[in-house]
Amino acid sequence: MLFWSLFSRGNKNIWLKVPGREAVETKITEVEGNLIWISLPRQEGQVIVLKQHDEVEIGFSFSEGYYCATTEVARIGNSHGKVYGLAIPERFERQQRRDYVRSKYSGTALFTSLTHNTSLATEIFDFSAGGIKVFVTPEFEKLLAKEKHFHVVFAIDSIAFSLKASLVWVKQKDEILYAGFKFNDLQPKDENILMALALKYSRKDTGKR
């Protein structure tokens, strides 16, 4: 999708991802010719310093999906609202399920069996917009032996999710047992928020769910 088709929808906030760092949300302050000017991006209070020709990824987040593209810092500005001028990419691609970013996150997830009315809490290992990976306790392992479909409640960045999930696999690695679940009947709004959060916490994790 073209930049102007996305920008004209009124979303002036974009996600900026520098290689090796978490994505941050920043604001488009002006579009000038072939440049997208953004304000000074910060991450946990620290200024993100970029140089001319640095490659970055930018993305728009909408209810129906996340659109991203790779570009570069074409110009360095000298005013408060025009710090980095990013070249307008030729096209933005909607991130598909197979391209979901998976990110590590520490938190608690509560699983409730859909047929046995049993609930157990466990710790999250990582998540994506498509599913969640958790640590398996002995009690949870027993439940997984007889139940594959759950209602799961968890929170990322204090944003609560209440979703249906199905067990995909149970694996042991380094004497630790993990389980991978895929989300079912995911609403576009939840998918979009999870995708943005996963991008924010993304790390170089190439394992497959």
Automatic annotation (TrEMBL):
Task: Quote the Gene3D superfamilies the UniProt record gives.
Answer: predicted glycosyltransferase like domains (2.40.10.220)
Top-rank lineage group of the source organism: Bacteria
Q: What Gene Ontology terms describe what this protein does at the molecular function level?
A: cyclic-di-GMP binding
Q: Which residues form the PilZ domain?
A: 96-197
Q: Which residues form the Type III secretion system flagellar brake protein YcgR PilZN domain?
A: 20-89
This chain's protein is named Putative Type IV pilus assembly PilZ
